[in-house]
Amino acid sequence: MLRPFRDADAEALATVIRSAIETIGPHAYSPEQVAAWSARHPRAERFRERAADGATIILASDDHDDPVAYALLEPDGHLDHLYCHPDHTRRGLAVRLLEAADAHARSSGITRLYTEASELARPAFERAGYTASHRRDFDLDGVAIHNYAMEKALT
Known about the structure:
- Helices cover 35% and strands 32% of the residues.
- With 155 residues, it is α+β, with helices and mostly antiparallel strands.
């Protein structure tokens, strides 16, 4: 089930992102890259702050209403996060979250979505109609890593 973020979801989302990076990340990134990536992502309170600052957090929950995946969309059309707990991958949650983000963006008057997709997330974004403009190579705390600048026009 998809639903909006509630403050009580913050701890679960912190677990989702950490588990996704640390468990799925090694399929495309080195241990050093995974550690640097994981260290940069938010703790629970940061989700509450982002929501209070206008970000829309759409989440997928399990049968017990516990969050298992989420997308974080900023007011300017930047899709900053798309993460799924490793126990819930390959169930279409990324597609459903991207569709919900599209619908929310359209209803908010946003005409373009953009993101920086990991090597692992890139295929999901491509299936959702995003186009990669270029590979972004950069350092996180002295560790070389990459992702892809991607965008999608909303018509």
